[in-house]
Prior knowledge:
Elements: H1 10-16, H2 30-35, H3 45-56, H4 62-78, E1 82-88, H5 120-134, H6 139-146, E2 147-148, H7 150-153, E3 170-171, E4 174-176, E5 180-181, E6 187-194, H8 197-200, E7 213-220, E8 225-232, H9 240-254, E9 268-270, H10 283-287, E10 288-296, H11 317-332, H12 338-349, E11 358-366, E12 371-372, H13 395-399, E13 413-414, E14 420-428, E15 430-432, E16 435-437, H14 439-456, H15 481-494, E17 513-518, H16 524-540, H17 544-547, E18 555-556, E19 559-560, E20 573-579, E21 585-591, H18 600-622, E22 655-660, E23 671-674, E24 680-682, E25 698-706, E26 711-714
Helix pairs in contact: 5-9, 11-14, 14-15, 16-18
Amino acid sequence: MLTREPILPQSTRKLVDTDKPLVSLGQRHPGLQLDKLSPVGDGKMEAQKSALVHVTKTLRDEKLLEDLLARRDDTLQSLKAQRLRMTTRGSLTLHLSRSGALENAGIALHPVYGFVYLPGSGLKGLARAWAETVWAPAQHQIEEAFGWSPGSERHKTWRPSELELRKDAAAGRLVFHDAWPVRWPRLIVDVINNHHDKYYKGQDDPGDWEDPTLVYFLAVGGGEEFEFAISDRRPANDGLLEEACGWLKEALITEGAGAKTAAGYGRFKPTEGEPSAALSPDFAKASFAIESFDLKLVTPAFLAGADQKREDCDLRPATLRGLLRWWWRTMHAAHLDRDTLKRLETAVWGDAKSGSPVRLAVDYVKGGQPEQYNKKAQQFESLPKPRSGQKVTQGLFYASYGMADDPNKENRWSRPAGSCWRLTLTARSGRFSGVPLTPQQFLEQAKAALWLLTQYGGAGSRSRKGFGSFQDIEVQGIGSKEDCFEAAARFRDSCGLEGAARSTDAPALEDALSMEQATAWNDPWYALDQTGMALQLFAKSRDAKERIALGLPRSVGRVPLKAGEIERHASPAFWSFTTGQDGKLSVRLVAFPAARLPDKAKSKKVLQRFIGSASQELKREADKPSRPITGPRRVNSLRPAQDSHKAALPKPNERVDAELLEEKTKKGGWRAKHRDSGLQGPIQDNPNVPAEAKPGQRVKLTVASVSAKEMAFRWAEPPPPKKRAARNKRPGPGRGGRR
Length: 739
């Protein structure tokens, strides 16, 4: 990777030389490090990440800030400013596109002192936009507070049309001061992950075959406290100062400050009290639609940010927003062409040029601390051994591949089952191609996507293998896939889009194949082990061409498989779990036939077989209860372990217990599975199988042949052994013969 180091005078180069710096990172000004000393990258995000990490390690002078705050306090007191202390609910970032050596990665750093701050100009604009959209009837107060200019007012699309435009101009009374931190805020490297770069550029469909594009930038984490202040240039004791402070407070709580506010960044809460504001009676009815939901993990979730450490193992709003977009797209993909789908998605979720009417905020509620995943942990020793005689791994480890397999990387951290977050969805009015849409219409779209996510999906790495599943939620008006279809159809109809032709390869809800299995299991690790084994057994029983339908990358031996030109494609199958009132787990599997694995017809055929095979595997084990195995120092026996590799295999002509499989041979003949070893194979005398035989039926079969990988069967019982003919022998000594 090539990067260009900044061109510096020789004397400066000696001070900041990376090998033997005279001035360490901890002594450098953060702004100078970011703007002057960061290397110019070649477009590779890892180089940008490395440069940003250096910025996070720069000067944090707490004593300097303490002295500055004392001087600021004296100034604000002399101005009789109204002050407000607010704490970040999550990450905060602003001024990403400021000019600098790195692309879209900057942050607002004080030019003299170097700490993160919120400029007063931005806070004034935030408070005014809030006042004009929510408190528009108080027109005279708004203009008195902020001032007005006919030229600027004319271009505000959110300004209510009934408000009159004044022909003159005047400055406002109020001064919005910069918001300073109470303690020196810690900088972090944050990341967003764009999975559909070509789609958003109008070059391809929104499928799961693109390589994700990581974008790193600087941010301030949650829990950082800032002080906001507003003063009055012409004090009149008319309550305007207090009114404006309320506008700012409500805007910080509901809208957020800075960049990426639609994705949950920049949200604040009062340092003291609950994160709620005193809103007007007409607020919820006219300006916004707001609803909150509790998201509770049923299975552990491999959550992470840029560092993939314990500190950023959390449910990030940006992650959740991306998942909601994906599931929302499945509701409309079967009814729209690519360009129309993209325009409609932009109207709901926004893009790089336009904001979104749907915003979300995520607050951690309760749950255990992050745990580092370790496949050798004592807690996993009691998992049942693989049932198959084939060369297979533990089902749990098959499903979690990559989370603890790379010796050059730290094992991933996970949030335990039971962790809970509160998601708040906020929607405001918007438009599609000039058609006005209400906050309630946008909120219904977000709620339908959320219902699908909690039913069939999950969050974090390996979520398609069942990790990060959420408990089912109750959504008013949305209780089934049919309700989602109807909500999507109503929205398209409101936008004038009913009847548009489909021309996209994106996954569509109408094409989905699914199954659900109730179980007697109550331990998530055990459940993940069972579904991982079901997936593994099916994958190993298919040839290379059929394995492609389960996703890429994948290889046979060391030869990588491809689907045309595609080398990467996320799995089209989603495992998920939910818990009933009795505490027992139910397993769901939904699969979307993929148009490029290698085509939709072949993909559908293989996925149908996969669902049938998985259903049989799970039914066979569903009634066997599991015992908790999640205690870090407890080893509980789930059930008698079966080590099929060491067990003696039956010999030809032995009668064995077997199970008929739904999957047939290429000629349409029956296949069966030996119940003790798990070995599968064809039934050679198919004409002898009764017509009433059904898949899943337990039968007695005769072993025709057996190897380490396959067992063939016969329906007929083995023939009786032949009797040996008696051989005439001469009597020996002592038996009546001659001596």
